[in-house]
C-alpha cells in the first residue's frame, strides 16, 4: 500500500487514486471519453492560489474589457466544435446551443461595455463642509473587487451558466479571478471553454490562472472552504446550494454566497383571461413548460386555473398541445430517474389526475405531461404540499380554483420564486378590475413578475433581475443583467486622504472620465 506524508513528515493515510471524469452521452448513457480526473485538495489549492496571483493583472479596466471581448470572439470562432461537444454531452440540440453560445458572447461584451463606462464603481466624492452638523470631512467612496470568486456551474445551460457564463463574466468584469467547479454533465465542454478563456487572457498579458477549473464533488467542497476564496456563485438544486451556503457561512471568515437554488414559477390565470383566450393560454403554457424538455429554471411549475367551462377549455387546449410533444432526453440519467419517480409520487396523491401522463418515454427519454388537482387541496399543510415543490423536467401542476379567495390562499403558501406570472384579460391589463391588485399580490413572491407572457427566456439586459426570495436565491442580487457585477464588489471610503495618495478614480479632476456624484451632484 502506498502512503502519503505531509510537509511535516506526518502520515496522512493511504494514497487514493484520483477518480476519472468521464464525458457521457445522455442519449445512450454511454461514456464518450475520459476528460480529466477529480481534483485533489492540493490541486484545488493550486488553482485558487494561481487565481489569487492573477488579481493585479485585472486591475486595469481597459485590460479587463479587452479580455472579455477577446473571450467573446474566441467562443464565436470555436462555435462549431464547442456546440458539437455541448450537444454530445447534453442532448439540448445544436440550434438551441448555438443560440446559447451567442447569448454568452453577447453577455461577455455587455460586461466589457459596463467596465468601459465605469458607473459600476459608484464613485461618490464629498468635499469637507465645516458648516454641516456634524462637520463633514473629505470623503471619497468607490467599489473594489472582493478577490477570487468560486463559480459552481449549472447543468441546464452549459454555456450561459457555466464556465464562461454570467457568474464568470460578471466576476472578471469586477476585477475578480475565478475558479470554476465544472458540472459533471458537461466536463469536456468545460475544459474546452476554459481553454478559450485562458487564450483570451494570454492575449492581454493576463496569467492563464485567472480562470481555474476543477472537477469533482469533493473539489467543490474544498473550494468553498479555501481561505483565499472571497465569494461564490452557484446555480443548482436547493439541497446542494443550501449545503454550500451553510459551508460559506460556517467558515472562520464567512463569505458572500450568491446561489440560485430552485423555483416553482407560479402562474395565475384569471377567470376573465380564461374566458377571453383559453386556447391561446393553454398553447402558450404547453410551449413554456416543455421548452428544453422542461429543464429551464423558470419553467412554470404551478398554474392556477379557474374551475368552470373556460378553465376546462384551457386545460383541453393544454392537453392537446402537450400530447403532441415528442419525448425528449434529459441532461443525465439520474435526472431522468428522479423525474420519473417524482411524477409517479405526485400522481399517486388523492384527487390528482393526469390528463396527459408524464413519465418514461423510452429507454433514455421522458414524455411530457401535466397533473391537475383541486386548489383546495393546496390551501392547507398536508401530503399535497409535494405539488408545491419543483419537479425538474417536462411537467406542470394545474390547480383548479373555485374563487379568488381560494387562489389567494394557495399563493400565500408559496415559497420565494424567480418568477411569478399573471394572465389577464384585455380589460384587466388596462387597469380595470383586479389587475393592479393581482400584480401587487404577486410582487412579494418573485424577482420578476410577468403579465400575459411566459417566464422561460431570461433576456440579458441592464434592467433584468434573475433572482428572488429564498429558496429561489440566497441573496437579493441578480445573476443576469448588468447589476450582476455588484455581487463581487465592496465599497471603501478614503477620509482626508491627500490627493497624491488617491487612486485615479477618486481624484477631483476625474482623469478617467467616470460617472460620479461630486458634492451631491450627479456628473456623467
From TrEMBL:
Keyword Oxidoreductase carried by entry: yes
Keyword annotations: Oxidoreductase
Any single Pfam family the record assigns to this protein: Aldedh
InterPro entries named in the record: Ald_DH/histidinol_DH, Ald_DH_C, Ald_DH_N, Aldehyde_DH_dom, Aldehyde_DH_Superfamily, ALDH_KGSADH
Occurrences of domain Aldehyde dehydrogenase (ranges): 23-460
Gene3D superfamilies, sorted: Aldehyde Dehydrogenase, Chain A, domain 1, Aldehyde Dehydrogenase, Chain A, domain 2
Entry superkingdom: Bacteria
Keyword Oxidoreductase (UniProt): yes
Name under which the protein is recorded: Aldehyde dehydrogenase
Lineage: Bacteria, Bacillati, Actinomycetota, Actinomycetes, Kitasatosporales
